[in-house]
Amino acid sequence: MYTLIAAMCIFSLTMSITPGPVNMVILASGAGYGFRRTLPFVSGATIGFILLLIALGLGLMQVVTAYPTFLKYLAIAGSSFIVYVGYKIGTSKPDISIKEGNCPTFRQGFLMQWLNPKAWIACIAGLSMFMDDKLLEPLFLFSALYFVICYLSLAMWAMMGSKAGVLMNTPKRMKAFNMSMGSLLCACAGYLLFDFFHAAI
When you count CB atoms within 10 A of the terminal residue's CB, does the N or C end of the chain come out lower? Predict the structure, then answer.
């Protein structure tokens, strides 16, 4: 049992803390708006991911398996959405006293996970490793562990962003940072799309 829990924790940490589209948005938000204002997005992304994991575990994965073209459309739609977010970040005004209303929201964090190809792949891979077709306990244990680890990992990215934001004390630096984050996010979306279709060949 302890071995299973350790394996679940290692998998969750590896998938949550490594760079991805959601992490890049959180980093940029933390730098531009601070740690506290980024937490709603962190909460939305975490809850969105866990609900996706549970939905797949309770039967949605069978639908995905039956209709493999669904993942292709998801990869295209998700990558397009990530590019859009990257464009918004990259072209945002370098205003240090930016309004709170422009900060990424809970709903955006939730939606981004459901449109994030990396999130779907992480869920499917994790369920394939730890799911028991006859029991639901492993699914809920995995989901509970993943929730805690995912939230703490994303919050750490928000904290790193807020620390980096201290250095962005001029409009010129903030503009360069926003453009860098936006470009990285677009590149990340392109990589995810390429990787998905390359693996499908």
Answer: C
Query: Which tokens sit at 123?
Result: 């869920």
CB 190: neighbour CB atoms within 10 A? 14
Question: Distance between alpha carbon 40 and the CA centroid of its chain, in Å?
Answer: 13
Domain map (residue ranges) of the chain? 2-200
What residues contact residue 191 under an 8 Å CB cut-off, 6+ apart?
A: none
Query: How many helices (DSSP H) and strands (DSSP E) are in the chain?
Result: 9, 0
User: How far lies 167's CA from each of 25, 102, 174, in Å?
Assistant: 18, 21, 9
Under 8 Å CB-to-CB from 90, ≥6 apart: which residues? 178, 179, 181, 182, 183, 185, 186
- Residue that has been written with the tokens 């948005």 in this structure: 25
Torsion of CA 71, 49, 130, 132, to 10 degrees: -80
Token reading at 103: 């900060």
pLDDT (tens place) for every residue of the chain, 201 residues total: 788 899 999 999 999 998 888 998 999 889 888 899 999 999 999 999 999 999 999 988 888 878 878 777 887 888 888 888 888 887 776 654 444 456 889 999 999 999 888 888 889 889 988 887 777 888 999 999 999 999 999 999 999 999 887 777 677 777 788 788 888 888 877 877 776 666 655
- CB-neighbour burial class of residue 133 (10 A; exposed 0-12, middle 13-18, buried 19+): exposed
